[in-house]
Design a protein that fits this description.
Rossmann fold, eight-stranded mixed sheet, 13 helices
Length: about 350
């Protein structure tokens, strides 16, 4: 099965991915860059960094300029006491692209990066040629209980225990044991599926500045009730943008049901559910992931922004008639859009 991660992409000969740094507004931004051609922007999830795309970048770079930033507060980028909202991240992405003289991109966003990708498309629609959302945040409230718990101020103080000498070694040992258990015939359930990647993300958090940035980012998008932002109320604005949705059916961080809600709310979007994959489908089955992306790029035309259309669509607002899917799916989309608990950015 794809979830066993036995499928690997072949190495790309003479592929060179450069780690580049730019200082923007006084803060160092790190990003990976490779290839030439139409630009593709890769946005990672919370607590992660651009290395998560290492296997994918050389293949996309054969025909494209690929930019994979470490978002502010992550990886080798600076981790200041700053605004870590999805809107701020979208601004940061715009500024980075400006320093590279890139005006148009296909945006591929994973998890938090998916939410940032949607926000970027909302704030800077003239820059987005296509949109790919991978296990994306910001659809509706559901999210892994551990993330809800970590967002509670009293509980997240426990994360400081990761700084105790030997703590991360223990976490890695337990993580490796659980990962091996998941791959045996015992198959204790999908809950363990993403353990290797979650341990990888945790390994960067003992650093106090990284931990602080992680918590600021988490609190901007999650509280004890779940995710606090939704993109569904503005999904109709992507009606003329090529959109690809990719999810794993074993995703316990952001359930695959979110993919169906987003698909129903985004007219004309394409949906791929990876059987046996969890929250990181591009790591579980990179061959299928790359094939899906390449097919999407080959069969869609880049979006060209029409300011008059954009203005009129906002005036008209979303229409219930544009929401597709079963009755229960349409009702779930409307409930998320019309909830008085949601926060709009």
């Amino acid at each position: 099965m794809s979830g066993n991660r036995n499928r690997k992409l072949r190495p790309v000969p003479n592929a060179e991915t450069r780690m580049v740094f730019r200082t923007i507004h006084g803060y160092r931004r790190a990003f990976r860059m490779a290839g030439e051609g139409p630009a593709i922007l890769l946005l990672h999830g919370i607590g992660d960094n651009s290395s998560t795309w290492t296997e994918i970048i050389p293949h996309l770079a054969k025909n494209h300029t690929v930019i994979a930033p470490d978002l502010l507060g992550h990886g080798r980028s600076d981790k200041p006491r700053a605004d870590y909202s999805v809107a701020a991240y979208a601004n940061g992405v715009r500024d980075l692209l400006s320093t590279l003289s890139i005006d148009h991109v296909t945006v591929i966003g994973h998890s938090l990066g998916g939410g940032v990708a949607m926000q970027f498309a909302y704030q800077f629609p003239h820059m987005v040629e296509r949109l790919v959302l991978v296990s994306a945040g910001g659809v509706t409230k559901d999210v892994h209980p551990l993330l809800r718990l970590a967002a509670v101020p009293v509980v997240n103080e426990a994360m400081k225990l990761l700084r105790v000498p030997g703590a991360m070694s223990t976490v890695r040992l337990v993580g490796n044991a659980l990962s091996q258990l998941h791959q045996t015939r015992l198959r204790p359930g999908a809950l363990l599926h993403d353990t290797p990647d979650l341990v990888r993300v945790l390994s960067g958090l003992p650093d106090p500045t990284a931990s602080s940035a992680f918590l600021r980012t988490l609190r901007a998008v999650v509280d004890w009730r779940g995710q606090v932002v939704t993109m569904l109320d503005r999904s109709y604005l992507t009606a003329d943008v090529p959109v690809q949705l990719i999810w794993g059916d074993q995703d316990t961080v952001i359930p695959a049901s979110h993919a169906h809600l987003a698909h129903a709310a985004m007219p004309g979007s394409h949906l791929e559910i990876f059987e046996g994959s969890g929250h990181f489908p591009f790591r579980d089955d990179p061959i299928r992931f790359l094939r899906t992306i390449e097919n999407f790029l080959a069969t869609t035309r880049p979006h060209v922004f029409d300011e008059d259309w954009w203005r009129q669509v906002i005036v008209d607002g979303y229409r219930k008639s544009t929401i597709s899917g079963s009755v229960s799916t349409r009702m779930a989309v409307l409930d998320a859009i019309e909830s008085d608990e949601r926060s709009a950015t």
